């Protein structure tokens, strides 16, 4: 039992460190290299640019919502799922961030503020239900389709490979989310 609080503390600390490390430097770089960044980002096709934007926003939303789940959720299973999402989506975000920076895109996409705002006002079972439906299940279904589309139709070789590599992980998250939804519905 003493392991769980330590795990949550570690996850929160790592997540906050990752967010803090990415946000301020990215804003400074974007302002300082606007001309060079614009030229480089134009080398990506509109499909690839949209993928980076959508995948980045989906990941940022997943991270923000999962961090909320650590303190707002009532169910142990929901908190454990959220903890797993924080770990996996932090890795995914770092990988996509590296690829985006290669093309001069340095500003990290923002989370869906409307969704995060609606979750912030919920606690316990209400939070669990909304998080599972809107983030865990629906969010991962959309992400699976997004990453599948990029892996099949993307133009940038590195992005296409990253999407292909990430797709099994995101598909597994979707399966986990559906199992979590069934478990919560049964209880």
Automatic annotation (TrEMBL):
A Pfam family it matches: DUF4142
Top-rank taxon, per record: Bacteria
Entry keyword set: Signal
Residues in the signal sequence: 1-28
Span of domain DUF4142: 48-180
Record-linked InterPro entries: DUF4142, Ferritin-like
Protein name: Membrane protein
Organism: Caballeronia calidae
